[in-house]
Amino acid sequence: KPKQKEGLILLLFLCLGFVIQSSRFNEWPKAVHPWAQYDRYALALGFLNNGFDLSKPETYLMNREFPHNFKKAQENSVTAVNLPLHEYAVAAIMKVLNSRSVWIFQWYNFLLSFLGLFALFKIASLKQLPLSFSSLLLAFLFFCPVFLIYQLSFLNITNTLSFVLAGTYTYLLYRKQGKGKYFYLSVLFFTLATLIRSTALIPFIAVLLTESFYSLKERKIKLDLLPPI
Predict the structure, then answer these.
(1) Taking the CA of residue 127 as centre, how many other CA atoms within 13 Å lie in the half-sphere pointing to its CB?
(2) Which residues contact 18 (CB under 8 A, 6 or more apart)?
(3) How far, in Å, are 46, 137, 206 from residue 220 at the CA level?
(4) Backbone φ/ψ region at 25: left (φ over 0), alpha (ψ -120 to 50), beta
(5) CB atoms within 10 A of CB 229
(6) Residue 70 phi, psi (nearest 5)
(7) What averages of pLDDT result for each successive group of 10 residues across the chain (229 residues)?
(8) What is the enclosing helix (H) or strand (E) of 19?
């Protein structure tokens, strides 16, 4: 059955991912942007220290911005950052498990990266591409060195990609089935992605322009789509 074959393929990639990345679990950042990764880890610990106050993300650095006041210490370590939802979620898991181990952050990013892989796979299926081609497309992203490098990092790159691909998939699902709930989901995924990483606004705008094009083509303003936007 097609659904069973898809499930087996995704399970295979999950197992492959674990085998490839197994030596990196519980390993501290030391290669790609280690300073930025430590900042992200510190944000998660900050929420544990401040009682999970999302409005006051903090690190252990006692100044806010640079270069104009880089040498000037502040009264607290609250910092400016895009909405740190991933770090907040990691902090919640740390709280439940009563651990601050780095492997929690790594497993979180590792598993969430498969949301994007799953969405990409479903996009190919939605376009009625052969299963072999869908698998090849999935492998192309999965074995990309950049993807593998950032998959276990503390940075929110693969996480944002996952939300963008999930938003793209749900939008294409809306275009195919015409159900408003899928458009709402798409806007939700893109909004979260943009709040977490500003560059995600680019594909979000592309989707909104595409829908605007269809509205002009069909000469119909869909008022039910305006509230989520």
Answers:
(1) 13
(2) none
(3) 49, 35, 19
(4) beta
(5) 11
(6) -60, -35
(7) 78 87 82 85 93 91 64 76 94 94 91 91 87 88 90 89 95 91 94 94 93 83 78
(8) helix 2-21
Helix axes 201-218, 157-177, angle to 10 degrees: 10
Please give the single-letter amino acid code of residue 21.
Q
Q: Give the ranges where the chain is alpha helix by DSSP (H).
A: 2-21, 34-49, 85-97, 102-126, 131-142, 145-151, 157-177, 180-196, 201-218
The one-letter code for the residue type at 193 is: A
The dihedral over CA atoms of 202, 207, 208, 209, expressed in degrees to the nearest 10, equals: 90
Bridge partners of residue 58, in order along the sequence:
78
Torsion over CA: 115, 79, 97, 38 (sign): positive
Return the exposure string of 92-113: e unless at least 16 CB atoms fall within 10 Å of the residue's CB, then b: eebeeeeeeebebbbbbbbebb
One-letter amino acid at 220 equals K
